[in-house]
Specification:
Elements lengths: L1 H8 L2 H6 L5 H17 L3 H47 L1 H4 L3 E2 L7 H24 L10 H16 L2 E2 L4 H19 L6
Parallel strand pairs: 1-2
Helix pairs in contact: 3-4, 4-6, 6-7, 7-8
């Protein structure tokens, strides 16, 4: 209450909120009144100015921390969990690639699995391009790009030519192990 009375006494509030055709002039006059109060060693004016500056600095710092550190980490954790879910969900399919010529009912499952794995690869690649220098528990861009390439290769290797299914199965398992190692994912086998 003393704050408002002090400001009313010195006409700071009236000067700040008196808006007519000379708005800019009124704003300048109000700022000059506040600065003169600070120059005159007015403790209330200094306290208000200091509190306002501190509040602005704290707000800017929290927004920077949120935007540069917290949000990327949360987004990475969500993406990592999505990749982990996809690898577990389609483990039976990439562990048993089918021959191109096979006309089975479950080709749709293989197509869906390929699209889901490819989508994860693209999301990881795009996410790696959005990172700024500050990272906390997020792999390097090169590691994420390589993991994205491995996911893309996995999505392309659900179908195999004749007599190469065993080779593709081994390669797919190696890809999954490499992806899990690079992104620190634990997929139960």
């Amino acid at each position: 209450m003393a704050f408002i009375l002090c400001f009313r006494k010195n006409n700071y509030i009236e000067k700040m909120f008196a808006m007519n055709e000379n708005n800019i002039t009124n704003i300048i006059n109000a700022l000059n009144s506040i600065s003169s109060a600070i120059k005159l060693h007015n403790p209330v004016g200094k306290a208000i100015f200091g509190a306002a500056c501190a509040g602005i600095i704290v707000f800017i710092l929290t927004e920077l921390i949120k935007g540069l550190i917290i949000n990327p980490n949360v987004n990475y954790i969500k993406l990592k969990k999505k990749i982990e879910f996809t690898l577990i969900m389609y483990a039976d399919l990439y562990s048993n690639p089918i021959i191109y010529d096979t006309k089975l009912e479950n080709n749709k499952f293989y197509d869906d699995a390929g699209q889901a794995i490819r989508k994860c690869a693209v999301e990881l690649y795009v996410f790696s391009g959005t990172l700024i220098l500050i990272r906390f528990k997020i792999p390097d861009k090169c590691v994420m790009t390589e993991a994205s390439g491995e996911l893309m290769g996995l999505s392309n290797s659900l179908y195999t030519p004749k007599n190469t299914a065993d080779i593709h199965t081994k390669n797919n398992i190696k890809r999954v192990n490499k992806i899990c190692e690079m992104l620190s994912i634990s997929v139960k086998k």
